[in-house]
């Protein structure tokens, strides 16, 4: 009886450890191809969902992580408000607003990628003004 209880407890502890390892996020290179594409998607989606008429562009990637055994990316981004409208071409080369119009945001995005079909889904986003 004692051996069965010990075995059961051991399996429960092992199962918990495997589960927590499987679902944790790990740091990755900011230059990883699918991460870069996920960042571009997140910034695009932010601009689409934001009510501001001006586009925001990426200023800095503060954190880059991937969920272990998946293509789910967690990113902490800093973005700035540009002088360009949302749907203008080449927002990356658009200057930032200065003075009263200057605005920066810091956002955390969770993006799920399906690389084989180049599909991205924004699972969660949280942004704060800086």
From TrEMBL:
Residues 1-20 form the signal peptide. SMART domains: CY. Keywords: Disulfide bond, Protease inhibitor, Secreted, Signal, Thiol protease inhibitor. The keyword Lipid metabolism does not apply. One of its GO terms (cellular component) is extracellular region. Residues 20-128 form the Cystatin domain. Pfam families: Cystatin (PF00031). GO terms for molecular function: cysteine-type endopeptidase inhibitor activity. It is found in: Secreted. Its main location: secreted. InterPro entries: Cystatin_dom, Cystatin_sf, Cystatin_spermatogenesis. Belongs to the cystatin family. This is Probable cystatin-16-like. The lineage of its organism: Eukaryota, Metazoa, Chordata, Craniata, Vertebrata.
């Amino acid at each position: 009886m004692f051996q069965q209880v010990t075995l059961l407890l051991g399996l429960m502890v092992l199962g918990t450890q495997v589960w927590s390892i499987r679902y944790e996020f790990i740091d990755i290179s900011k230059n990883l191809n699918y991460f870069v594409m996920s960042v571009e998607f997140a910034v695009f989606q932010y601009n689409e969902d934001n009510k501001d008429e001006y586009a925001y562009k990426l200023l800095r990637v503060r954190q880059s992580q991937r969920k272990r055994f998946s293509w789910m990316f967690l990113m902490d981004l800093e973005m700035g408000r540009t002088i360009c409208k949302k749907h203008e071409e080449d927002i990356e080369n658009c200057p930032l607003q200065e003075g009263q119009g200057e605005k920066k945001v810091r956002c955390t995005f969770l993006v799920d990628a399906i690389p084989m079909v180049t599909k991205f889904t924004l699972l969660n986003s949280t942004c704060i003004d800086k």
